[in-house]
Write a structure and sequence with these properties.
The protein is globular and about 65 Å long. By secondary structure, it is of the alpha/beta class. It has a domain of 167 residues: D-Maltodextrin-Binding Protein, domain 2 (3-Layer(aba) Sandwich). Helices cover 50% and strands 13% of the residues.
Amino acid sequence: MSETTPARRRSLIKGAAVAAAGLSAPMISVAQTTSFRFQSTWPAKDIFHEYANDFAKKVNDMAGGRLKIEVLPSGAVVPAFQLLEAVNKGTLDGGHGVLAYHYGKSPALALWGSGPAFGMDPNMVLSWHTYGGGKALLEEIYASLGMQVVSRVYGPMPTQPLGWFKKPIAKVADMKGLKYRTVGLAVDVFTELGTAVNPLPGGEIVPALDRGLIDAAEFNNASSDRVLGFPDVVKNCMLQSFHQSGEQFEILFNKTKYDALPAELKSIIDYAVQASSAEMSWKAIDRNAKDYDEMKKAGIKFYKTPDAILKAQLEAWDKVIAKKSSENAHFKKVLESQREFAARCGRWQNDYMVDFKMAYNHYFNKKS
């Protein structure tokens, strides 16, 4: 047997020490996955449900297995308009919808979507929420209602059409007596204009139109309207309206479930909200434009809503907000906050932003 050299002995001793240390070291445990069950307020085929899944995917990808959000479509657990209560009670861990759907609990909640917002576009309304005091006001309203939820408002929506009509609307008088679908404070605006309003959830609108239960309806955008089947039952769409010209999406979490998350997972959620807000607005431009073109090719007639109707909406809105402000302190408080922000930021935007329509017409609508 050969003699062990000093260098060899040192190597063997070191190896034995490392092995011993390995035997006594604690096992490294794999982080447990926290699962959140969400429901959207949209049918599975709608682009809005796709937006909800986009958000969930960002969280799931960034969390690296530590947090997983599963999104179910509207009605899987509760009806669309019962989302807030379901998240509050813990029936759902979270959800994806719009604040106007909670209008029945407080009319002030609809101010994150309904109405002209003092001339703010949807991105400005989101700016008001984030930097102008809207977030704190929303938390105050939810606390007053006993809602144990965490809300993240995101996703500025494009201006919504006046809606789908069996024949084009030419004047304010044409609205009177129509059985019309809308939601939120838009219900009050169109009631003021003489329509008979039915606030149906998204999945029920087209069947109601098809069966003649309603005469006209609005939902949201070209992509949603097309996939929900509006062009199959009505052939006229009126574009532009102030009834929901600055709406946002809302992501809700059950507060107990959210508060139990570690700080780094809460940060992932916050950054996923911001990223989803940007992606949603970019995707909406591309998809809405494509679906708008497809519907035009299919023979759907689009008309600009006459200015007389738009002005009548503003006048009706003034009456609605005066009444609601006298009845609800939170409503008045939110309006005052929006007005202050809009006066300052609207002045900046209107003074600084060039008329993009002029450039578009220069290249695409030149008169021969």
